[in-house]
Amino acid sequence: MLVLLKPGTAEATAIDVMTRLRMAGLAVHRTEHEGRIRVAAIGDLSAVAWDEVKDWPGVESAQKLSRPFKLASRAFHPHDTILSVGRAAIGDRRITLMAGPCSVEGEEQAFTIAAAVAKAGATVMRGGAYKPRTSPYAFQGLGEEGLKILRRAADAHGLSVISEVMDSQQVSLLARYADILQIGARNMQNYALLREVGHTQKPVMIKRGLASTIEEWLLSAEHVMAQGNQQVMLCERGIRTFETYTRNTLDLNAVPVVKELSHLPVIVDPSHGVGIRNKVAPMARAAIAAGADGLIIEVHHDPDHALSDGAQSLFPNQFDELVAQIRTIAEVVGRSI
Amino acid sequence: MLVLLKPGTAEATAIDVMTRLRMAGLAVHRTEHEGRIRVAAIGDLSAVAWDEVKDWPGVESAQKLSRPFKLASRAFHPHDTILSVGRAAIGDRRITLMAGPCSVEGEEQAFTIAAAVAKAGATVMRGGAYKPRTSPYAFQGLGEEGLKILRRAADAHGLSVISEVMDSQQVSLLARYADILQIGARNMQNYALLREVGHTQKPVMIKRGLASTIEEWLLSAEHVMAQGNQQVMLCERGIRTFETYTRNTLDLNAVPVVKELSHLPVIVDPSHGVGIRNKVAPMARAAIAAGADGLIIEVHHDPDHALSDGAQSLFPNQFDELVAQIRTIAEVVGRSI
Amino acid sequence: MLVLLKPGTAEATAIDVMTRLRMAGLAVHRTEHEGRIRVAAIGDLSAVAWDEVKDWPGVESAQKLSRPFKLASRAFHPHDTILSVGRAAIGDRRITLMAGPCSVEGEEQAFTIAAAVAKAGATVMRGGAYKPRTSPYAFQGLGEEGLKILRRAADAHGLSVISEVMDSQQVSLLARYADILQIGARNMQNYALLREVGHTQKPVMIKRGLASTIEEWLLSAEHVMAQGNQQVMLCERGIRTFETYTRNTLDLNAVPVVKELSHLPVIVDPSHGVGIRNKVAPMARAAIAAGADGLIIEVHHDPDHALSDGAQSLFPNQFDELVAQIRTIAEVVGRSI
Amino acid sequence: MLVLLKPGTAEATAIDVMTRLRMAGLAVHRTEHEGRIRVAAIGDLSAVAWDEVKDWPGVESAQKLSRPFKLASRAFHPHDTILSVGRAAIGDRRITLMAGPCSVEGEEQAFTIAAAVAKAGATVMRGGAYKPRTSPYAFQGLGEEGLKILRRAADAHGLSVISEVMDSQQVSLLARYADILQIGARNMQNYALLREVGHTQKPVMIKRGLASTIEEWLLSAEHVMAQGNQQVMLCERGIRTFETYTRNTLDLNAVPVVKELSHLPVIVDPSHGVGIRNKVAPMARAAIAAGADGLIIEVHHDPDHALSDGAQSLFPNQFDELVAQIRTIAEVVGRSI
Q1: What's the start-to-end Cα distance of chain C, in Å?
Q2: What is the pLDDT at residue C310?
Q3: Taking CB atoms and an 8 Å limit, are A332 and B274 in contact across chains?
Q4: C192 vs B133, B134, B166: nearest CB
Q5: Is B244–D244 a contact, with Cβ atoms under 8 angstroms apart?
Q6: Mutant choice from D239, D242, D249 vs B, greatest count of B C-beta within 10 A
Q7: Which of A163, C200, D118, D315 is exposed most, by the fewest CB atoms within 10 A?
Q8: Quick one: which H or E segment has residue B96?
Q9: Shortest Cα distance from A217 to chain C (angstroms)?
Q10: In this complex, which of D279, D328, D333 lies closest to C257 when CB atoms are compared?
Q11: Residues of D with CB under 8 A from a CB of C
């Protein structure tokens, strides 16, 4: 249920309302919008006589949150969530650019790329240290060594770090090195992992599963938020369809849909989304035109020798050029870089 | 096979080459690029000794056209095809805007909308007179009466007309009223219909089938072109996926992919593609950012009373606003409106 | 609306009811079940005061037909439809076996295969004379010559003939040679064609479109039935998914679902459905176990030299063996061969 | 690479061959077939001169294992894998029946159902104690308490236990109570979890992900097997398509395909696969007819009050009846119950 308090309700009264709901066994979350406190009460609703709640002191109305996701919904939290990460304010008027190699491969690679993407305007560096690979025999990432390199390379250029966490047992390790914890598409419904990152206070980026509906994706965000961590953003990275020419089918329709249903920032990953280098820039431009809050893009100075995903990585100069194009498109939709 | 002639080959020599190929039972098509004649020879290739063709007078090389579509491929026809229709040059630097109601419903509706979309910058008016409806009991369109109204409304505002032809027996009727013959998504592989429009000299727009691969779509274009009509454009209008929040999943990845594989213009239909009014503008902007040659958009002055697809039709003022946004995005990708 | 008449209602009274409905502008269809006349009234329902209909002489009740398909629904027509075609009673307790080559290629081929499949227990011979081919350059079938051969080969062995009709202009030609008109998957929503076969009195088999929902498929049947031809059967032949190992994904779930929603017979085509010879028999067995009313299977005595679909055609002896297996499975589900 | 040794090669010679391959840095696995030792050597193949391997003592041939899955492939391991679990021999001539409630809900429920399914012929009892739920607010299972109940109920009726493990940290707990560790569809590509169960010696059943290709599914099995645990079986449980009438689309095509590509047993879950009670039996029959090695079916004595998935659970008497039907179908495909 969504319980709206009257404008100017005293804090003590608000606490009273929330206490009564908690005592009925409900989980209670609070936000504010246009000077009014909004309380989401989640759980077995049968213990409360909802008809009478509007007569409680301070309460204006109580209405059902009809979507299965509650904390992630705009109904509960009408204004856009903005996540502060280093120099980035993700979800703000300014477009966030995250860039870097698919996998961290070594000191030189990471520093070279960090320098290039920082110069082009990125504020977050991406780089995998633990890689989810379809084959057990493929390169699995450098592990903690990779995280250390990534951290140093990012720090040297004033960048924040995003990196994927693949298992509940890895969360504390990742949290030591990364500023944003990435949940990969294959793990979007790994609920033990979602719960674990929900117990940290690190921003979390949840990639959409290959065949996940938008509702399921928002429910995965809800799994994190229900544990207390409200710093969640979503990342569209392509769905699986019948088409075989592209690696995946980047679903930009999801951008305006999620922006309407939810207050969480939406990032687009055109690199995995389409999977072909010369299609990355068109889809990145399109993502911003569709209203995305940011991009996460694979950039590599020597993609032909990359240990993973070289064929979809941009050269640094291509990334530069793309940023210039996006700058103008951002203005059309009331944003900037 | 693609037979490239040497620069400056005399016309008589070129004709000689083509005649020899025809006498071997092959269908022969010709184009020119950078001062050189290019000849596509299609059919049972076994009757020609291809090793020896490069020794024929005027021939520079003979190479296999590896894709199953031949005339539609960039390999055969490297430069962009531009289709002249009234004031529009579809595929040219200038973005083409097609707009109008889903169905023609009457004189007043058609004239009101024609005036609005012409003023906003559209050069082609869309409007269905024969509607493919999933249910036999739904409104099937006004038929020829609708075509007459559409023609008059378009003419009154200097617009060209695009309208759907649903059956091989309707082609000559449609050709009398429309400037562009539209093949609907459900008929993308109605080969009798494709052949029939291939025998006209009218521009044809082929909508992508709901579950058609890009290759199949280009092969449908090839069905038309193989009959002699090279005036073909393609229209992405959303594919079917597991997602139920949107009506279809507009696949913008198809835009840069088709532009690479083929020389044919690509139009995007965000109205059917996403099917929700307030998502049409974001997807339309994204389409242009991704490199589309034009848009076809449903506009209705009174969508709540539209006989079909009202929920996805833009109001005229929304269309105006969209055109303004697109103007700037077009410049980013080297285009204009 | 579904108007149920009381048991024992006099014919004159029934006609009265139907006339009143027709005069209100509705299309009226009639069936009988358990001694009671059932009337489906379809169209703009607003002209009738439905509350009062139950007070009309002879009327027991009037209720909404909630599904968008009406004549195809079990609600209107509770008992199974059985289509008599030559020696076959399709939809009856007995499983119908249709078999033959993908394309008719010549006299010898057709007669050899006809003999083999008749001996094995088939009662209907399949064979394409007009082939819908993705490429305009592939073998398109022998046309009318093929139909003549097919007819003679079938007649020589007491078989009925099923063959595909691809265009509204071909219907009368096909109807001259074939006993069952097949609508191919690509034409499932070719409404002009559906209307045309709806005007014949030939049984029609509608293949499910590659990405068609079950509801759309039943609505295509409704398009035929609304024209007056109630002799319709459905054919599941595989849908398109992301899987690339098989040609299509035969969707056997559709069998029990359609049998519940509709009274029309359901045939399964495992040859196109899975597209790999040694997977055809397992899927054919599974289809019967799932409750299908029949099978349509590609059989070729020399598949390596077939002009189309050789890789999925069974050898005659494999078809024999399959029929033996199916005989036992049929008994498990209360059927026979 | 697959290194085949000559028939009758002495054990010492075989060990020699394997040692040489290991010393080249390769992982080495061994199986036997028709009296011959077969050695799979996996890893960076460049350190061995493969042309010369056939001249090593005891070696007959060395050939590439072309599929990305190696240990899971029939090329390496031509005979069917049979997993011994209590009274079941999964993959053997005898069909394995696993049945039980979706979730363990309490002592009485578990014992009642255990008795019923044991009597009907099941040898393995299913029951969830940790449930992967799309919503964080839905019933998440009884946890360890549920496992204890499940174990006692199964033991009381001579049944083995299968239950889902959702996280790498849960593996040792699950292994204490369950005989088979189930990897759910959402976790099919949770590689940390796959590795962890790969370190146990418990049989593992891997459910196919909702949008996983057959190749990816076999690669998930490979992830387990590469850790040393060869006791793996696969479970088809429905893929996600555009169809909304059924919960999922049970893909029976996968059964014959996997049986050809791999030696691992294939179980089918029609309960989740179709998700509608009266469609479970038809699809279960079809699965056996298609060649499945077993079924896993939800059975509940009071499905209307089940805490999860009641709408797809069979009543015990329906399960009885189904087993009787399957008995006959099993014989048709050379199996028994």
Answers
A1: 38
A2: 86
A3: no
A4: B166
A5: yes
A6: D242
A7: D315
A8: strand B96-100
A9: 20
A10: D279
A11: 211, 213-215, 239, 241-246, 249-257, 260, 273-274, 276, 278-279, 282-283, 285-291, 325, 328-329, 331-333
Distance CA D232, CA D83 (A): 8
Minimal Cα distance from C247: which residue of A? A242
Torsions phi, psi of D76, nearest 5? -80, -40
Task: Express each pLDDT in C32-89 by its tens digit.
Answer: 998 899 999 999 999 899 999 999 999 999 999 989 999 999 999 999 999 999 999 9
Per-residue buried b or exposed e for D40-61, using 16+ beta carbons within 10 Å of the residue's own CB: bbbbeeeebeeeebeeeebbee
- Cβ–Cβ contacts within 10 Å for residue C8, how many? 10
Q: Is the Cβ pair A244, C241 closer than 8 Å?
A: no
Beta-carbon contacts of D27 under 8 Å, excluding residues fewer than 6 positions away, are D41, D42, D43, D226
CA distance C175 to B282: 50
Query: Which residue has 């960048």 as its token pair?
Result: A159
Give the global pTM. Answer: 0.95
**Which residue, among B173, B229, B233, has the nearest Cα to B206 in the 3D structure?**
B233
The vertex-C287 CA angle with C281 and C293, nearest 5°, equals: 120
- D140-179: buried (b, 16+ CB within 10 Å) or exposed (e) per residue? bbbeeebbbbbbebbeebebbbbbbbbbbbbbebbbebbb
Q: What are phi and psi of D290, to 5 degrees?
A: -80, -10
Q: How far apart are CA B82 and CA B227, in angstroms?
A: 19
Q: How many helices (H) and strands (E) does chain C have?
A: 11, 14
Q: Which amino acid is at C249?
A: T
D240·B244 Cβ contact <8 A = no
Q: C interface mutation test: which of A212, A240, A242, A244 has the most C CBs within 10 A?
A: A242
Q: What are the C-alpha distances in Å from C44 to residues B306, C26, C31, C40, C50?
A: 17, 7, 21, 13, 12
pLDDT along chain D (337 residues), means of 10: 95 96 94 93 92 95 94 96 97 98 96 98 97 92 97 98 98 98 98 98 97 97 97 98 95 98 98 96 98 98 90 96 97 96
Q: Provide the shortest C-alpha distance from residue A5 to chain D (in Å).
A: 24
Instruction: Give the pairing of strands C204-207 and C180-183.
Output: parallel
Give CA–CA dist C190/A188, Å, rounded. Answer: 40
CA distance C141 to C143: 6
Neighbours of chain D (3+ CB pairs under 8 A): A, B, C
Cα(B13)–Cα(A326) distance, rounded to whole angstroms?
A: 50
Q: What is the DSSP string of C235-278?
A: EE--B--S--SSSSB--TTHHHHHHHHBSS-EEE-HHHHH--HH
The CA-atom distances, in angstroms, between D16 and each of D19, D23, D39, D56 are 5, 11, 12, 10
Residue D281 near residue D325, CB atoms below 8 Å: yes
pLDDT, one tens digit per residue, over B49-86 is 999 999 999 999 999 998 999 999 999 999 999 999 99
Query: Are C289 and D291 inside 8 Å of each other by CB?
Result: no
End-to-end CA distance of chain A: 38
| Geometric angle at alpha carbon C162, from C156 and C167, rounded to 5° | 135
Asked if A134 and D219 come within 8 Å (Cβ–Cβ), the reply is yes
Q: What is the pLDDT of residue A263?
A: 98
Asked if residue A219 lies in contact with residue A194, where contact means CB atoms within 8 angstroms, the answer is: no
Instruction: Report, as ranges of residue numbers, the positions in chain C whose pLDDT lies below 50.
Output: none
Written as six digits, the tokens of B266 are: 């690509």
The three-class DSSP label of residue B103 is strand
**Residues written for chain B:** 337
Find all residues with CB under 8 Å of D211, minimum gap 6, and list them: A209, A210, A211, A240, B242, C242, D239, D240
Chain D CB contacts of A168 below 8 Å: 167-169
